[in-house]
Amino acid sequence: MSRTSFVVAALALVAGIASVTATGRKSELQHYIVEKSFFQAQAECALYQGVADDDLQRYVRTGYPDEEEVRCLLRCIGFNLRFWNQTTGLQKHLVAGHFVPYPNDFHNVERTEACLAENLYHCDDDLCTQVYKAFQCYYQHYGALSECPQFVVNYYNEDLQLAYDTHGLLYTSQPALRNLAGACFPKDEESFCYFRSFNVRGGLYDDHKGWHLGRLYQQYYEQVFHPDNALTIACLANQQKLACKRTKCQHAYESFKACFGASNAHEYQVKVVFAEAAKAILDQPVCHCNKAQLCPLHK
């Protein structure tokens, strides 16, 4: 190979690598997904609350002692990772995800539940104390804190923003918006693609990997989404056999409908989130702007 040919080939290879990297195909796209470890949330909350580095290291080293600053630090972490909220308190399925059970410990769940029962917080406990008591039960009995990031679930307003953004990203047609605003879900390609994009952007679905049961279970906390649910696994496997006869968008919707159609999540997405986002868009001025006539948004 001549020197010139070698240089040309090398440049082509570099261009190819750059192209693949630029498309994001080498790593998972961020979309609207938030993943965070306990220790990342802890560092954020320490910054928010002005906890000194030396104090934070001592708290971790001594197992989070029962001190006011520690209790409120843990309250912040609980809200940061969404394993505690103002309405229903402790979210057991979410906090458990931040702990790794010790090998051959088959009674960690029982001990944790017994601890929670024995250490019920009282009405006169402040919020920091409530979170602290619950956290200590998991810290002492469930397992070791995981260093791996976990999926952070969305609240309703975030789902609404996600749905609203997806309309903008796809430029949903007016007829489709009116159908969705009426909590109707017509079985056409535009609706299928909206459904698929919403769930892809939310980190719940992937064209290659399918439905992410772990995240679905964390988000909606329904048994049909449990990663070990045998009926669900079989249903998704059967649906995959039909994928070659469907478009990507159609397969996303039809597989969800077939395996999770009776879930609250399906009704929540279609009849609540999609409907409210579409209504919000329809309430805005519709712009068909040209040089002769400008709509109110562009004056």
Overview of this protein structure:
Helices cover 58% and strands 5% of the residues. By secondary structure, the chain is mainly alpha-helical. The chain folds into two domains: 119 residues, Recoverin, domain 1; 127 residues, Pheromone/general odorant binding protein domain (Recoverin, domain 1, Orthogonal Bundle). A hairpin with a 3-residue loop joins strand 2 and strand 3.
Mean pLDDT: 88
CATH topology of the largest domain: Recoverin, domain 1
Amount of beta strand: 5-15%
What is the name of the CATH superfamily of the largest domain?
A: Pheromone/general odorant binding protein domain
Poorly predicted regions are 1-21, 288-299
Shape: globular
Number of helices: 14
Cα-atom Rg, whole angstroms?
A: 24 Å
Distance, first to last CA: 63 Å
Tally the beta strands.
Answer: 8
Q: Tell me, what is the CATH class of the largest domain?
A: Mainly Alpha
Strand line-up of the largest beta sheet: 1-6
Overall SS class: mainly alpha
Oligomeric state as shown:
single chain
Under the CATH scheme, which architecture of the largest domain would be assigned?
Orthogonal Bundle
Can you give the helix content as a percent range?
55-70%
Number of domains: 2
Largest sheet: 2 strands, antiparallel
GO molecular function: odorant binding
Signal peptide: 1-22
GO cellular component, one term: extracellular space
Keywords: Disulfide bond, Secreted, Signal
